[in-house]
Amino acid sequence: MHQMHGVGYAEYSRNLKKRLSVEKEREKSYEKSQRVIQDVERLVHR
Fold first, then answer.
1. How far apart are CA 19 and CA 36, in angstroms?
2. Residue 1 or 35, more confident
3. pTM (2 decimals)?
């Protein structure tokens, strides 16, 4: 948690603003990875 987001788990669980920020970053990262997967699948299935 700390390496990826710069926030330790204790702080993450205590601070709502930090938690929301981390979750937004995680959601963006997930969406980006899904786009990459779709691109790779598209290339494989040509």
1. 26
2. 35
3. 0.76
